Amino acid sequence: MSEHGSGSAVDFDPTDPKHSQFDLVREGARRDGVEIVHYQPRFAVAGTKREKRIERTIAFLLVLSGLSALAFIVVYVAWPYEYEQGYHADKLYTPLLGFTMGVALLALGAAVIVWVKKLMPEEVAVQDRHDNNPNLDERALTAATMMNMVDETGIKRRPLLKGALAIGAAPLGLMAVVPLGALIKDPHGEDQPLWTTGFSEGVRLVRDDGTPIRPGEVSAGGLETVFPGIPHGTGLQYADSPTLLIHLREEDAAEFKPRKGFEDAHYGNYFAFSKICTHAGCPASLYEQQTNRLLCPCHQSQFDVKDSCRPIFGPATRRLPQLPITVDEEGYFVAKSDFKEAVGPAFWERP
Ligand code: FES
């Protein structure tokens, strides 16, 4: 038992200035049905070499935690800065996030454990449950108990740990908050990626090997998957751009029902629709020539091509967006503009 304390358990006045903080702590514990049976500071003499060594270990762990949290923020925000086809370092993005966050939290946990086990006083207490409502006295005792816990950490007389804690805690706090920043980007506006694809006015429609297409290269009743003819247009960077160039037979084209505003979106009997299913984003690429239906193999949605790709079966509820097309002076298919609506499945703010 320590030499702390002079208060009697009977008629104890918590407001008496003669009591030490620990007297209040022990009295508070007693009133809560807790008996402190053993209390011993770790170091009888302050400032020993061993104590300093432990402080340095904790400071190292806290700084390591802070630096790892900083590294997490840097990776999260700045690396890889932009997607580049063929640049495989971006595959390390998620593992690096996990590694830096793991080191930050592990180092913090280790610092707390070493601090509690090696620096804070040893204490053994036996506690009973109590259901009394707190009164003013008990609040004073509880406050003293809290202050005592702070004192026991020794933070006030350990400037090294105070500094290390500040260095470690600030980035850790940021590490928790920074990912929220990704949620505040405004999804509206023409340049937002959810509203745009790789197509824009004058961009050629090309096959997956990059070759452009002229009318006549797709047989009547057939279709071809096309991509924007721009750098990386056939790659994953423009994964929302794959489009179906459909050549309707003469009689089917005559029955085509254009949507309002899309009367001039086709070129002759050629029509272009997004290949990305509006249900969950699978490629809707099975074309039933006889019925002029596009089928999505994932959940069997069907779209009526002659009715501007209106969904007629399955879970999809929106049409496949139509890409306005024409041909350029060399006779190759080009887009007249980007899609006029967002392609693919629903997202926030999308009607
Ligand atoms: S993704 Fe096409 S039907 Fe579900």
UniProtKB/TrEMBL annotation:
Pfam families: QcrA_N, Rieske. It is a multi-pass membrane protein. It is found in: Cell membrane. The chain crosses the membrane at residues 58-81, 93-116, 164-184. Keywords: 2Fe-2S, Cell membrane, Disulfide bond, Electron transport, Iron, Iron-sulfur, Membrane, Metal-binding, Oxidoreductase, Respiratory chain, Transmembrane, Transmembrane helix, Transport. Residues 268-334 form the Rieske domain. CDD domains: Rieske. It comes from the Bacteria. Its main location: membrane. The keyword Transmembrane applies. Belongs to the Rieske iron-sulfur protein family. Iron-sulfur subunit of the cytochrome bc1 complex, an essential component of the respiratory electron transport chain required for ATP synthesis. The bc1 complex catalyzes the oxidation of menaquinol and the reduction of cytochrome c in the respiratory chain. The bc1 complex operates through a Q-cycle mechanism that couples electron transfer to generation of the proton gradient that drives ATP synthesis. This is Cytochrome bc1 complex Rieske iron-sulfur subunit.
